[in-house]
Amino acid sequence: MLTTAFYLGSLCTAAAQSKERPIDKDSPSWVLKQKKKNEAKKDFPRQEYPRYIIITETKGVLYGNPCALQETHKMGFEYVLLKEGQPGYETMWKKMTNNFFVKTGLVFRKSPFWKLILKHRIEDCRVNTGDFIGDASATEPEDIAPISF
Prior knowledge:
single chain, 5 helices, elongated
C-alpha cells in the first residue's frame, strides 16, 4: 500500500512538472507532430469520383440543359445516356446494379426524397430556361395560326 501511494504521488508530481515546462518548439518530437498534423486529411481533400445513373431515354431528365446538369451535380451524380449496343454499354445487369447502388447512396447522402426534390428543381430549370421541347405536359399556345406561303 505504501508503494502504491508512493507511485501515485510520483505520477502526480511528474504530471505537474510536465504542465509547467514550456514546449520546446525546436525539439524533434514537436517538429514531427507538426508534420503529422500538416499531412492530415484536411490538407489532402478526399477525391469525389463521379457517380453516374445510366439511362436509355431522356424523358423527364432534361438531358443537355446546363441548369439541370448543375442541379444533378449538386445532388452528387450525373445522368449518362447509353443505348444498348453503344460503346460503354456492357450488360443490362451491370446497368441495373450500378443504378441501384448510386440511387441507394443518394437516399442516405441527400434524402429519401432525392428524386422528388430533383424533379422539382428540373421543373424550375425548365421554366427558367424555357426548355419545353419533348415535354408532353407542356401546353401548346392556342392563339397561333399556321402560316401559309
